[in-house]
Amino acid sequence: MIKIKPPFLRNAIAIAAIFIATQASADEHSYKEVSGWRIFQNEKDCSAIAGFTDDEYVAFFYDASTKSTSVVFTDRDSTSLEEYEKRNLDIMLLKANGKLDDGWESTEFTVLVNDDDRRVFRSQSLDDPALADFRGARAIGFFYKQKKIASYDLAGSGAALREVERCSQRIHNINPKDVFAGE
C-alpha cells in the first residue's frame, strides 16, 4: 500500500466521488487518515479508501444501520466491461494466521467507468460478518473464474475499518455498547 499523496489525493477524491452514493462532491465530505487509509463520512455510510501502486484503489463502505459492507476496487485493465455490467467475482482473504478465507465466493459486483476510463467494481451489499472478515485480513484478492484480477496488501485496514464502523455508528446514532441496537 502507498500513502495517498496530494497528486494521488485528487484521483482518490474523484474515485471516492463515484463510490459515494450522494450527488455531493467528495470535497464536501469530512475525512481523515488512519493508518494510510482515507476515511470519508458519507450521507448514509462511512468509507475507507487506500491507494496502491499503478494508481489503483480499494475502498470499503459500511452502513451500521443495516450492518452491511461493500468493497470497491479499481482496475484499468478490464476495458472490455461496459458500465453497469455485473459480474460474480470471488473475494479471497489472507487472514492474519496465514489461512485463506474463501467465504465470499461468487459475490456480485457492478462495474462503473470513471472519467479516465478506469473500471470501478462495487460489490453488492454484504451482510455480517463481512466487516469483521475484512478487518481481520492481511490481504485481499479478486478473482474471476479462477483468474486473478487484482490483489492488495491490507496493511493498516484493521484500524481504518474500526474507525469506519465508529463513524457509521455516529451517523446513525447507534451506541456500540447497546446490545439491542440494530435489531
Molecular structure report:
The chain has 183 residues and is of the alpha+beta class. Helices cover 19% and strands 42% of the residues. The protein contains three helices and ten strands. The protein has helices at residues 6-19, 130-135, 157-171, and strands at residues 31-34, 37-41, 46-52, 56-63, 68-75, 86-95, 100-113, 119-123, 137-144, 147-153. Strands 1-2-3-4-5-8-7-6-9-10 form a ten-stranded antiparallel sheet, with helices on both faces. The longest helix has 15 residues, at 157-171. The chain is globular, with a radius of gyration of 15 Å. The N and C termini lie far apart (36 Å).
Question: What's a concise summary of this model?
Answer:
With 183 residues, the protein is an alpha+beta fold. The protein has helices spanning 6-19, 130-135, 157-171, and strands at 31-34, 37-41, 46-52, 56-63, 68-75, 86-95, 100-113, 119-123, 137-144, 147-153.
What is the strand and helix layout of this fold?
Layout (H helix, E strand, L loop, with lengths): L5 H14 L11 E4 L2 E5 L4 E7 L3 E8 L4 E8 L10 E10 L4 E14 L5 E5 L6 H6 L1 E8 L2 E7 L3 H15 L12
Antiparallel strand pairs: 1-2, 2-3, 3-4, 4-5, 5-8, 6-7, 6-9, 7-8, 9-10
Key terms:
single chain, 183 residues, alpha+beta, 3 helices, disordered N terminus
Distance between the termini: 36 Å
Main beta-sheet annotation:
10 strands, antiparallel
The total of beta strands comes to 10
Tally of DSSP helical segments: 3
